[in-house]
Each structure stands twice: as C-alpha cells, then as structure tokens.
Amino acid sequence: MKRVLWLVPAILLFSFTAKAQDTAQWEFSGGYSFLDANLTGPGSSFHLNGGYGSADENLNSWLGGRFEFNAWGGSVGGTNVSAQTFTYGPVISFRRFDKLTPYVHAQFGAVHANAGYLGISNSAFKLAIAPGGGVTFRINNNVGVRGQADYLMTRFLGQRQDNLQFSAGVVLYLGHK
Q1: CB of 38 within 8 A of CB of 45?
Q2: Of 48, 52, 139, 153, which sits most exposed with the smallest number of CB within 10 A?
Q3: Domain count of the chain?
Q4: Residue 50 domain-assigned?
Q5: What's the distance, Cα to Cα, between the start and end of the chain in Å?
Q6: pTM for this one?
C-alpha cells in the first residue's frame, strides 16, 4: 500500500502542470445517438436510434455554450414513433490534458414527439431538460471524437419520463481563442 501512495501526489501534480490544449472558437459535432426511454411502471421502456448535431461556442478555455439537436425513431409495439430534442445550455470543460477534454453541461429546451410516442394522440412539444457530460479526444488541431451521456427529463401525459441518452460522434474545430 505504501508503494502506491506516491501515485496520488504525482497524479495531482501532473493534472495541475499538464500542458493545456489550444481552445477552438467553435466546435461542431455530429454522429449517432441512442435513447433509452423509461416510463413509470415495470416493462414500460423502449429504445430508439438516431443522430445528433451540436454547435459549441467557447467563450474561454473552460466555459462555452452548446446548441444541440437530437432525432430518434423506431417501432414501439408495432407503431412507428419519433422524437426530437432542441436544447441549449452552458458547457464547462476541463482542458488540462493534451488530447482529452472531459466536460459537463446542463441543457434546456423542448422535445417534440409524433402521435403514438408514449401513446399520445397528437404530435406535441414539451419541456426537455438534459444535464450530462462526456469526453472529447482530440485527434489533431481540426478533428476529434466525442462520447456523451445525458439524463433527459421529459413530461408527456402528465407524467415525468426519466430517459437516458448516449451519443458518439466526430468533432470539427474552427478558429482559436
């Protein structure tokens, strides 16, 4: 045990002295998105597949804003359903490493679902809240890859839905701060 205790200060020292990466003015990302829609009650969840696109403007090396669009579709109980989210919110990034950028965000906006989604009779827009986080691996100055996980809270038919959303995609960096 005493042999590994030296690792803790070494890791802390490295994280505070590691060369920070350059910050891009804009980050554009797009890729695959998976929605695990969880409803209240046993056996009342389903999965949808789709894609996402996002645009981030970095205000400085640690704070930015992100607009994100997600769209999913699939068949649930023989009914074709689709849902889309339109959200915006702050992103806090930890750019202390050369290639890896962990981040957290809290996004707010709307979810749109077609008739049949969760048994709703008409297409509808409702409130969507999506806090989460992820990590971006910067391949070079222009391109990276991103993985992200979010809790997506929606409210249809007077009930709250606690959903999980997972995304993976490519990031393009434009400009410099």
Answers
A1: yes
A2: 139
A3: 1
A4: yes
A5: 44
A6: 0.82
